[in-house]
Amino acid sequence: MHLRPASRSRLPAAALLTALAGAAAFAQTARTAPADSEIVKLGVFEVSGATPNRYQASEVSSGGRIRTAIFDSPQTINVVTEALLKDVGAVRILDALKYVPGVTESTLPNGLDRITVRGFQVDGATVDGFFDITQGNIDPLTIERIEVVKGPNAILSPTGSPGGTINNVTKKPLFVAPRNSVRLEYGAFDAGAVEVDSTGRIGDASSKFAYRVVAAYRNFDNYYGNTKTKRHTLAPSLSYLFGPATKLTLQAEFSDWRAGAYLGIPIDPSSGSTNTAKLLAGVSTTKAVYADDIYRRDKRSAYRAVFTSELTEHLSVRVAARQAYYYLDNQGLNFAPNNGNGGAINPLTGLWTPGLVYGPGPAFTAFPAPVQSRVFNRGGQRSTVNDKKQNFQNDWVYAVKIADVASTTGAGFAYTRRRPNAGQTVVNTNLANTPLDFDNIVLGPLTDLGTVNTRENNNELTRQYYANQNLTAFDGRLIVSGGVSKIVVRNATIRLLPGATNHVFINNEKNTVNYGVVVKPVKNVSLFYGHSENASPVSTNLTPVGTPDFSVGDQDEFGARVRLLENRLQLGVTYFKIAQNAFSVPNPANLTVPAPIPPAPLLYSDREAKGWELEGTYEITKGFTVIGNYTNFTNRDPNNIPFRGTAEKSAAAWARYEFQDATLKGFNVSLGTNWTDKRPGASASGFTAASTPTNLIPNQPSFYLPARTLVDFSAGYTRGAWSYQANVDNLFDKKYLAAALSRNAVYAGPGINLRVSATYRF
Known about the structure:
With 762 residues, the protein is mainly β. Helices cover 4% and strands 54% of the residues. The strands form 8 sheets. It has a 23-stranded antiparallel β-sheet that branches. β25 (448-473) and β26 (478-495) form a beta hairpin. The termini are far apart.
């Protein structure tokens, strides 16, 4: 197989220019109005900024790339508003996303925006409907709102996570009088920034141009010693109105993120499958056994263009394209005790038993384990990625009303491309293995051995074609929808090291469907059922022989939404069931010291997730709003084993009160709490040595991160052009374990932290 010539890489720009020219000319002819009377009209692809209350959105665009009322959707969709991002003082998007049901911390708090949704890990970031791998975390300043579509989504994210898609919608130009703000932030840790946000029309009130410039500089110490974060972000954008319902927006984003590659410290050897885990005794939770030359870096530039228009009364079009360039660098260190882990899996139960090891079968006699040494071997790998990616999307919507039935037909296509021999370049090199004594920690410089164990180009051409139909009848009481999506994948991994398998290809296609129904027995009650599917191509560089080309999954969910008290109270309950085959997870063998050469292949397993989500928003009185959620589900493999980093029960609530009386006018206070149940701290797979064909004994996770409850506090004051805010994270200085990659890489939760900021608007 040969991929198409590199010259075809100019197709996105050519297609975009052709589509823009034709659509703009059509729109100008079909919908002309005097320049001084033009008013920006929201099209079917744009969402109104109006909200029922501070934390509740009415519409989204992520469900199918067109504007959809959440109350009318057959799929669960949650929105994090810009107000919530500001009130929690989000340092990373999870700070606000934890108030969305089913969204919890995963295994890596300081990078990759790694989050679990309904128990499935989400790596990387989706921004304005375009997905990218990352090393850093998204800067919340650039985000207007976050739309979380639960479960597979054949249109927005046809090859994405089966748990859901987190679509970060960026700030764009506003056609208003100029608005400017400058914000300064300072804190004990994880806080130190200067932010600028400026938007408005260029010229007078009849101007067809609007701009926006978002910029931030961040430089602060992290909770863990020897680690810092530095980031520069610049995001300029420009919009032009061809007519009241025809708009072109051009965006650019430049960022450079560098942070300490902290991976934690080992767990205490007394931690097992059935007791409470704790960190290695005698080591401070703030200790980072990493010098400042151990870091993650994410340097990128992205250019986006979006054109939307109502060509006629019934026909609308959207054309979007993106070109992204990025360089990723991860210097990851791992630990391994030099005389064993102080325990072992019991072959008769699959449970990790501290202090015991077992002899051979059939007796599997237990013996005292050697006392785990306090000296660990330290080593790892350095991974660098250079990537160039192109995306193109074209969507068409035809809406018409026939008698009492409203029909909306959507269709479109999209593709993602990495050019042959100029796409993603991955290079892994070995780092030196050195002893590390946790009773006398001495940090030496990082030594890169220069031994390259992986060098490859990953070239991709993924195409998507879809069509959707939505029918609304009986004055909006019945909504029926359905659609089909086709994914065509042409991927090639070209391995460049001598002796390596030269080419690995995926050349396949898959059809997926979605359908649903919404019934409103009364105006303020919405009952819904939805079925959705996805088909994600598996990795090509670390894929065992025999693994299918696609990981295929589907979700069925049903639930109810209720709006009461003039929409001030909104409640929802959802039951979901997700089945996914060949879902990949990282192989823990790659965390050993020394790391295997070549890297160990990914692990693949079928998974099933099912359970309940409850959520509510209530504006009790003017200025007093409460949001809350509770989730209870299971996410297991065929042997009923839970997955690393997945909290199957969680809850969160946030309340904000803004004083209304004259004396305290301008003051507000907020209180938030979030709880997660215990989570496996290490991956478990396979069966014990005592297993037989008729009595399989699966290995269990060797330890669990204990359940924890955290409380956050916020207070603010606004007077005139000035706003002040103070956030206290982990108000009661709770000691807890935040995340884990393995027994030897566990994150202590950050302690109490005070962050203060001042904002001037003009």
